[in-house]
Amino acid sequence: MKKVIHTDNAPKAVGPYSQAIEANGMLFISGQIPVDPATGKMPEGIEAQTEQVMKNIEAILKEAGYTFDNVIKSTCLLSDIAYFKPMNEVYAKYYTVNPPARAAFAVKDLPLGALVEIETIAVK
User: Fold this and answer.
1) What are the C-alpha distances in Å from 13 to residues 9, 34, 67?
2) Which pTM was predicted?
3) Pairing of strands 20-23, 101-106
4) Torsions phi, psi of 39, nearest 5?
5) Domain extents for the chain?
6) CATH code reported for the domain at 2-123
7) How far apart are CA 28 and CA 42, in angstroms?
8) Are the C-beta atoms of 55 and 39 separated by less than 8 Å?
9) 80-120: per-residue pLDDT in tens?
C-alpha cells in the first residue's frame, strides 16, 4: 500500500507528482530543487541552492518520520559538473557517518533554472 507524503515545509510539486511516496517501509522522495517553500524563490549560488535542497529533503523526511540516517540512496543532478565539488561540501554536512549510495550527473537543464536537484530514497 502506498502513502502520499506532503508537507508545507518543502516546495509544492511543479508537476503531476508527489513530494514523496512511502511504500513497504521505504520512502521515495521526488527530486527536490532549491525553492524556499516560505518565499517560493531560489537562493543564488550552488552552495546556497544545495543547502536549500537538503532542507527541503529534511522537511519531507521529518514529515514521514525518517531522518538522514535512514537514507540509502541519493541521485544528484547538476546543471554543470563544475558544481560537483561545492555541492559535495554542503551535502557532506548532512551525511557525516555512513553516507548513502549516490550517483551524480551533469544535465542540460533543471526545472525553473535550478543549479541542483536531488532525489532521495530512505528505508526504515
Assistant:
1) 12, 12, 21
2) 0.96
3) unpaired
4) -115, -20
5) 2-123
6) 3.30.1330.40
7) 23
8) no
9) 999 999 999 999 999 999 999 999 999 999 999 999 999 99
